[in-house]
Design brief:
The protein is of the alpha+beta class. The protein has helices spanning 14-23, 48-53, 115-128, 157-168, 211-216, 270-279, 353-359, 371-378, 416-428, 502-519; strands spanning 4-10, 30-33, 63-65, 70-71, 101-103, 106-108, 131-132, 174-175, 178-179, 225-228, 232-238, 245-252, 255-266, 304-311, 324-326, 344-347, 381-388, 397-400, 406-409, 444-449, 485-487. It is built from ten helices and 21 strands. Strand 18 and strand 19 form a beta hairpin.
């Protein structure tokens, strides 16, 4: 096998997988290095016990918090990255998210690009990732977005009832945009069957639109694309002047490997990308590669997220609940009295009894919870997620110790608007129960802020910008200090906004891919399929 490639992509998730897909039709030699293996298709893909209690697919590596306490991050290392386990919610950043916005806890900074720059790529990403939705329902849309190519996923009866309940209060709930291979008009041949094992699970039917199925697998038979799983990148080496990455050093099962490429692209995830750069310190970059600004690893964000669970005596007629969302309070309270951003509400995936046991095991071990009890609770439960913006702070950072220990030094902040929205949501659920049985009017609610180990939606550790003294990357996501190093995972985010980041990662990787095509003087067939033969 050759040891030198035109492009090396480190990581095969939403950013890395999409970039490789964008560049594949050029015929350039592309190497994809992925620390994980191919995700097995097996019965356990759909087992709540295997996924949530045994944590069969989750990493076992340990990170440390600012107090030195170890924790296992909720992350997955497989071909396709974390997207094989995500909930398939694919939303655009709002137009105002790209601008400077004041929050109760501080300022969300402006991006060096605008919605106008990403809009055509959002359009393409929504088509490629088969996003099902309905335009005109979400009050935060600009109004000029094209119609979704795929219709919104229908609501189960219990979700439809909740939608009506919120509309009675003057809210404007909308269909949550979902990337699933669903054809409700032809259920017999539809790949997606709207099962109970979607978010948090790898899809046994490959019906979830993720980087594994949509970006990586269509490339695997191309002669110019090489995928090497089981390769954990340890560091990047440069020339003596520190301007060019000359070798990618990785660990494989048989030992160390070294690869070289004209262009090197990091897409290992916001935490691990920062770790690789810090591990690559050399004489030209004593504080870590591309870290003359001292921003590598800083500004770690992962959303302020709270799960709100409502239990009633009535069973809920819901098997696929994650189809509804609310943005009424994204920029403030439309009823008045609070003009600062609060965030986004969306329904969570179906939780079986064993899923619930796995979620609460930190304070109640599963063996103490009878399956009959947890199963009965799951049948009477609706789960919602409140997502609010986590503001960037230089003190919230990923640090690599001399002993190889990864520390996530993080303090929660900007919770005022978030807590307000959680309370608004809880109050809105009053009276949402069967009116046929007066006793069922009483319901029980719990809410919990996603802890540090959740690591969901992590971003911001190598922010892009126009000022090399205050950012790591330029607006094309190239490192300011290196000529051939790019980053296309969510590390480049300047702010976290309050929507799921996957679609933005995909759209931006397409944008950077087009920049690289121009830089390399490459051409793509005018009518080529992104996954087709160049």
């Amino acid at each position: 096998m050759r040891s030198h490639f035109d492009i090396i992509v480190i990581g095969s998730g939403a950013g890395g997988g999409t970039l490789a897909q964008r560049l594949a039709p050029t015929g350039k030699a592309i190497l994809i290095l992925e620390r994980g293996e191919q995700l097995p298709r097996e019965a356990e893909n759909w087992s709540p016990k295997a996924v949530f209690i045994q944590r069969r697919y989750r990493t076992q590596e340990r990170w440390y918090d600012k107090h030195g306490h170890a924790f296992i991050p909720n992350t997955h290392y497989w071909v396709g990255g974390n997207t094989s386990f995500y909930g398939a919610a694919l939303m655009r950043m709002r137009e105002r998210d790209f601008t400077q916005v004041r929050h109760a806890g501080g300022v969300s900074p402006a991006w060096p690009i605008s919605l106008t720059d990403l809009a055509p790529y959002y359009d393409e990403a929504e088509r490629l990732w088969q996003v099902h939705g309905a335009r005109g329902e979400d009050p935060t849309e600009t109004g000029d977005e094209p119609a979704y190519a795929f219709p919104a996923v229908s609501h189960d009866p219990g979700v439809a009832a909740l939608k009506g309940h919120w509309e009675m209060q003057g809210w404007k709930p909308f269909s949550l945009p979902l990337g699933v291979k669903l054809d409700e008009a032809r259920p017999v041949t539809s790949t997606c069957i709207k099962c109970k094992t979607c978010g948090g699970y790898p899809c046994l039917l490959k019906a979830k639109c993720d980087a594994r199925t949509l970006a990586i697998e269509p490339l695997m038979d191309l002669p110019n694309v090489t995928l090497l799983p089981g390769r954990k990148v340890l560091k990047l080496e440069t020339d003596a002047g520190g301007r060019t990455v000359t070798e990618v050093v990785c660990q494989a099962a048989h030992g160390e490997e070294r690869w070289s490429g004209d262009i090197v692209v990091l897409a290992a995830g916001a935490a691990n990308t920062a770790v690789i750069l810090q591990a690559s310190a050399n004489a030209a970059h004593p504080n870590g590669l591309a870290n003359g600004s001292d921003q590598v690893g800083r500004n770690y964000m992962f959303h302020n997220s709270s799960a709100v669970i409502s239990l009633t005596l009535d069973r809920q007629a819901v098997t696929f609940p994650k189809t509804l969302a609310v943005n009424d309070f994204y920029w403030g309270d439309p009823r008045g009295g609070y003009d600062l951003p609060m965030g986004h509400i969306q329904l969570l995936e179906y939780m079986s009894g064993q899923t619930l046991e796995g979620q609460i095991e930190d304070w109640l071990p599963p063996f103490l919870v009878p399956d009959a009890l947890s199963g009965a609770a799951a049948e009477r439960m609706l789960s919602m997620l409140v997502i609010s913006e986590d503001l960037p702070s230089p003190d919230n950072r990923v640090k690599l110790g001399r002993d190889g220990r990864i520390t996530l030094n993080y303090t929660f902040g900007n919770l005022e608007g978030h807590d307000r929205l959680v309370n608004i949501l809880k109050a809105s659920l009053d009276g949402f129960s069967s009116h046929a049985h007066p006793i069922s009017q009483h319901h029980f609610q719990i809410d919990s802020l996603l802890p540090l180990y959740g690591t969901a939606h992590q971003c911001g550790t190598t922010r892009f910008g126009s000022d090399p003294a205050a950012s790591v990357l330029d607006r094309d996501c190239k490192a300011h200090e290196l000529d051939n190093l790019y980053i296309v995972d969510t590390s480049f985010f300047v702010s976290a906004n309050a929507v799921n980041p996957t679609l933005t990662a995909v759209a931006n990787a397409m944008r950077v891919g087009d920049h690289l095509i121009d830089r390399l003087g490459a051409k793509t067939p005018a009518s080529s399929d992104p996954g087709g033969t160049p």
